[in-house]
Amino acid sequence: MSDATAGESPSGRVRVLVYSSNAATRAQVRSAVGTRPDPALGDIEYVDVATAAVVIEHMDAGGVSLAILDGESSPVGGLGLAKQLKDEILDCPPVLVLIGRPDDAWLAEWSRAEAAVPHPLDPIRLGRAVVDLLRQHSGRAGTGVLRSR
Start and end of every Response regulatory domain (predicted)? Predict the structure, then answer.
């Protein structure tokens, strides 16, 4: 698979993983960003995930262009999960974390996430962050290759 298509699904859409233990939060993210937030990026195909184990499976498999992780998820929060992904996956795709409050930005920085958006989610701010990350990292979807330990 070429770098240009590594983050695209077989249908040619950009794949965005959305992790939250709360189904309403996942739906809110999908609704806020939509399926085509920027015509230059193409359509977004969402991968909804409710557990950390499934996030790791998808990220290990590769082909994800962006991961949006809810820091308020339970029992595994998105901030710790972001740090784990960045530490363990070679060429990890960009990660956007949803944080509980603006003062948690330092935790987002610790997690090595490229962006953070606080709850309650502002659709304009979230959409802008998603588009910016996808533009900056287009053609650089994660390979799913684990770092050697």
Answer: 15-134
Structure tokens at 120: 């309650």
Could you tell me the maximum CA-CA distance found in the chain, to the nearest angstrom?
40
Per-residue pLDDT tens for 15-45?
A: 999 999 999 999 999 999 999 999 999 999 9
What's the whole-model pTM score?
A: 0.87
Q: Which helix (H) or strand (E) holds 67?
A: strand 66-70
Q: CB-based contacts of 17: which residues, under 8 Å, 6+ apart?
A: 46, 47, 49, 55, 58, 59, 64, 66, 67, 68
∠ CA 27-32-37 to the nearest 5 degrees? 125
- The amino acid at residue 39 is P
CA distance 1 to 4: 8
Rounded to whole angstroms, the Cα distance separating 141 from 45 reads: 14
Dump pLDDT digits (tens) for 90-147. Answer: 999 999 999 999 999 999 999 999 999 999 999 999 999 999 999 998 855 555 555 4
